[in-house]
Amino acid sequence: MSRTALINIDTQQSFFHRDYWQETDFAAFQQAISTLIAGCEARGVPVVDIFHVADSGPFALESGFVAPMPFLKHQAAVTFHKHVHNAFTDTGLDHWLRSRDINHLIICGIRTEQCCETTARVASDLGYRVTFVSEATLTFPMTHKGVTLDCNALRHRTETVLEGRFAAIKTVHEILEL
Question: Where in the numbering of this chain does the Isochorismatase-like domain appear (predicted)?
Answer without folding.
Answer: 4-161
